[in-house]
Structure formats: C-alpha cells, structure tokens
C-alpha cells in the first residue's frame, strides 16, 4: 500500500534509506489495520504510529545536519516544516478513539503518507 518509489529518490543514499524506512513503518501500520486476525490491534497500531513519529524525529535531525553541512539556503524554512509535522503527529488523540477507529486510523495513515510524499518531492529533492 505505502512504499518508496523511484520518483521519491533524492540521490542522497542516507536520506533515501531513511525515507524508505518511514514508508515501511507506515505500511506496517496499514497492514496491521487491515489484518482482521490481529487482536487488540489498535494499541499495536498506536505503537507503530509512535514509532513512526520517533523515527521521523531522528530522520529530520539527520536531514537537517546534512543540510547544515552543505550550508543549504532553505534550511530554516525546511526545519519549520519538519517541526510542524511533528506537532501535528503529537496532536493525535488516540485515547478518545472509540467508534470508527478503522476509518480514523486510515485517515491518519493517509495524511502521514501524503505529507511524506509531498514533502519529499517538493522539498527533500531540492537538497541534492
Ligand atoms: Fe525534509
Ligand atoms: Fe526527509
């Protein structure tokens, strides 16, 4: 469902590998969501989304360090986009998830994937 595609590649190996992992984590959450044989899957999915948030923070740090090492001109605005993303992910309220859990989580995964794809194509690819 969610995966790294060639058109997302920046040509910077470290960044591409980390993006690949972000898509892998998003996809793992999706596979869990649609697997009716996994009991208590919502807690498990929340854990995966938390892992995605944490890995995003790590990835953003690496990317920002890389941009700084190049004296990349758009570092400041790029950093602001990363911070905004983390803020959005932190706002998710999983505690009050009751009805339509599946739809809500699917909506979250769609948002995360769309953000990643757009950010990579429109911003990360400019770094190289
Ligand atoms: Fe970025
Ligand atoms: Fe990135």
Percentage of residues in strands: under 5%
Q: What's the order of the H and E elements?
A: HHHH
Number of domains: 1
Please write the CATH class name: Mainly Alpha
| Coarse shape | elongated
How would you describe this structure to a colleague?
With 128 residues, the protein is an all-alpha fold. The chain has a single domain (6-127), classed as Four Helix Bundle (Hemerythrin (Met), subunit A). It has helices spanning 13-34, 41-69, 75-90, 101-127. The mean pLDDT is 94. It binds fe (ii) ion (2 copies).
List the keywords:
73% helix; Four Helix Bundle (Hemerythrin (Met), subunit A); 128 residues; mainly alpha; binds fe (ii) ion
Give the helix/strand layout.
Elements: H1 13-34, H2 41-69, H3 75-90, H4 101-127
The structure holds fe (ii) ion (2 copies).
In brief:
The chain has 128 residues and is mostly helical. The chain is built from four helices and no strands.
């Amino acid at each position: 469902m969610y995966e790294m595609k060639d058109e997302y590649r920046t040509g910077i190996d470290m960044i591409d590998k980390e993006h690949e992992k972000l898509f892998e984590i998003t996809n793992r959450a999706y596979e869990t969501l649609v697997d009716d044989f996994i009991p208590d899957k919502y807690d498990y999915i929340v854990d995966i989304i938390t892992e995605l948030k944490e890995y995003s923070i790590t990835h953003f740090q690496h990317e920002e360090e890389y941009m700084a090492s190049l004296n990349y001109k758009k570092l400041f605005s790029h950093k602001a986009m990363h911070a905004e993303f983390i803020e959005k992910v932190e706002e998710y309220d999983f505690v009050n998830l009751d009805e339509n859990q599946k739809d809500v989580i699917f909506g979250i995964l769609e948002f995360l994937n769309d953000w990643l794809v757009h950010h990579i194509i429109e911003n990360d690819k400019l770094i190289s």
